[in-house]
């Protein structure tokens, strides 16, 4: 009679025997739920494909490995992973729905837009897409701030070079 197995599900433990081709018999892989001490060709390979006198030679060719895993741990990790991905997707959907409501014209951004409209025509020609236009995304806001910063740096350079010329 087979030895009693520990209290684990049948998917968690197994003995796997890989038997290569032998004479006129093709190779085969055998799986069976047995204890670790019974993990050998004689207990796992059923039905035995060779006659009684060839069993020993056939079993010497077979490679048997005892395998153990925790399907419960695998299931828990997958549930956690899917929960995190689901939460991130919900957060993304929330941001996409709430973002237009948050993007009302702010009191502190209005002077910046007025300042852009009052700049000379050369500056407006350099950045027609951002002048007076309301930014729709965070990236566009950052891009607009970057363009304003570049214009300010350009004006500072122009002022410094004009002063340098006057001093020379």
Automatic annotation (TrEMBL):
<feature type="transmembrane region" description="Helical">
    <location>
        <begin position="76"/>
        <end position="98"/>
    </location>
</feature>
<dbReference type="InterPro" id="IPR008853">
    <property type="entry name" value="TMEM9/TMEM9B"/>
</dbReference>
<protein>
    <submittedName>
        <fullName>TMEM9 protein</fullName>
    </submittedName>
</protein>
<keyword id="KW-0812">Transmembrane</keyword>
<keyword id="KW-1133">Transmembrane helix</keyword>
<comment type="similarity">
    <text>Belongs to the TMEM9 family.</text>
</comment>
<keyword id="KW-0472">Membrane</keyword>
<dbReference type="Pfam" id="PF05434">
    <property type="entry name" value="Tmemb_9"/>
</dbReference>
<dbReference type="GO" id="GO:0005765">
    <property type="term" value="C:lysosomal membrane"/>
</dbReference>
């Amino acid at each position: 009679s087979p030895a009693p197995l520990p209290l684990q599900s049948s998917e968690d433990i197994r003995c796997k025997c890989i038997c290569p081709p032998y004479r006129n018999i093709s190779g085969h892989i055998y799986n069976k739920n047995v204890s670790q001490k019974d993990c050998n060709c004689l207990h796992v390979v059923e039905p035995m494909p060779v006659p009684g006198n060839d069993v020993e030679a056939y079993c010497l060719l077979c490679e048997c490995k005892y395998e153990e895993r925790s399907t419960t741990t695998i299931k828990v990790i997958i549930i956690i992973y899917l929960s995190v991905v689901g939460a991130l997707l919900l957060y993304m959907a929330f941001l996409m729905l709430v973002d237009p409501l948050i993007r009302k014209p702010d009191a502190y951004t209005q002077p910046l837009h007025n300042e852009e409209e009052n700049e000379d025509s050369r500056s407006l020609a350099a950045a027609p897409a951002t002048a007076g236009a309301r930014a729709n995304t965070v990236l566009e806001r950052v891009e607009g701030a970057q363009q304003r910063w570049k214009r300010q740096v350009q004006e500072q350079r122009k002022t410094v070079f004009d002063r340098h010329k006057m001093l020379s």
